[in-house]
Design goal:
Strand order of the largest sheet: 4-5-6-7-10-11
Helix content: 25-40%
Shape: globular
Structural class: alpha+beta
Distance between the termini: 15 Å
Number of helices: 14
Strand content: 15-25%
Length: 581
Amino acid sequence: MSDTATVSTASTSDLLATVGTFLDLVAAPFTLPRSRILVLAHGDQATDAAPLTSVRVCRAEYERRLSDCVVFDRLSVAGADGELLAVTAVLPQRIEFGGGLVTLTFAGPHALSVGVAAGTSAELRLGVPGGSTTAIALGGDAAASVSLTVGEERVVTTSLFGADDADGHAAHLGATETIWRDWLDRCPRVRPDLQAMTAFCWWVLGANIVELPGQGSARAVVPSKIGYVGLWQWDAYFIAVGLRHGDAELAREQLDLAFRFPTETGQLPDVVHDEGVLASSDDLPPADRETLRAHGSNVADPSIPVPLTKPPLAAWALGKILAKSTDVDAAELASWADTNWQTIARSQDWWFAGSDLDGDGMPEYGHPYSSGLDDSPIFDGPFPLASPDLGAYLVLQDRLVAARFTASGDALRAAACTARADATLGLLLEMWDAEAGRFLSHAGDEIVASYTAVSLLPLLTGELPAETAATLVAALTDPAQFGTPWGIPTVAVGDPDFSTERMWRGPVWININALIVDGLDASGYPDEARQLAEQTVALVIHGGGPNEYFNPVTGQKARTATTSFGWSAALYIDLAVRLSA
């Protein structure tokens, strides 16, 4: 890759066309910001070498599989001769059938519009799951366009428009293009070799915007409309860090949602979704609740709810967003920031008061959900689990909150946060095993043998002894540890639990790489930080896009990973901007 700091001068039209090269209707759907509607390739054609002639229309919903949310199992178009027209182009603003004879676009966030070119006849065929197919004539003496409205309960209203109303479809085409042009206008301009993927990643963030009706139609940038339709606290932080480079207002909205529902004790919820929040096992359906409690803390009373949250990276995200928030009045921004710093401070207090489950001064994870690393082998044993990543996050957050209190003149609270950070750092350093050359997790007196990437995250503190930091940095390039061709595996290569494919048990995750880039910078290793950043953006390009996680040997999407994944897109953008400075 080039090391030049020259940035791309690509126009918005260039970016629209560039994004279209990624929209395969498999890894990347046809959708619209704020819409729940997705258009994807029909299942039996998704991997077929033959031309695509049928698509399916789904509605993205919280905690429901996309296969359970199909509105039209098949949407296809037949020409005047009765033969199905192939999909010949997919752009952010439209899908073209038959070289543009028929086009599909959005008619606002809740409807699709299908229209035919002047003087053309075609037949729209709509198949519902397990049901019959409806044929609608388009063109000629019949309808010139059709509007398909998909309601919240996936109820479909079909409206036909005569030839005189064909301009309505043209207006929808124009409006949809305007939405995407406005969004791509904000796309950061980066190094030319990184610009195409940056445009696609910026599109992914726009595509993943949904409205949360239960939250006053707030705009949430969800992890993925293909599988993760809600605002997970951790994801919101990473996504906001990428959004800040082009839409600081939307970045701030993500924190507003993540911080909107603290408990009385200050705990922040794991998820904010359409119907409320997920903050404890009591917020889950009964069957899930019992399963969760059965695998929850063996120190906390198993008869009471298990708190569910995400790692304390709120101050890390807020600080980055504030540095880019030049779009609002300084007094307004200061008031907003102060409110959020107070929320973060209360959340930090909760970790020590409510999640130090064995009372030794170092908070623990009471359940895998609260770690963000749900399937990591460090959680194969008992709970609660003291883990070096959590210790590092807590030290970093207390340092940042202390700096905020110092700046605002609250010396007493600043001193308390500093003292707590010092104590936590001391406990974190006690988790270092010099003989093994890594930080160890433990559940009570039981040491966790699995060697995972959580051992590397204490670099974030920037306060490790020089020899300790050097040992961790050396592990990054050791092929028996974390030196794979495509970045940092989440489990060390030489560990018995290592897998190239299993979620959190070996694949590369962009957020872990990005955090370690920050850790290397904080620990005095800027060259290694840049090298890892370059390797990470190269991985996303090589792997075809911002997938949820990647095989560390091939650099391709792991088989079960979600595509068009929000934090991978956001952190690619953040790294691309950093590398282009």
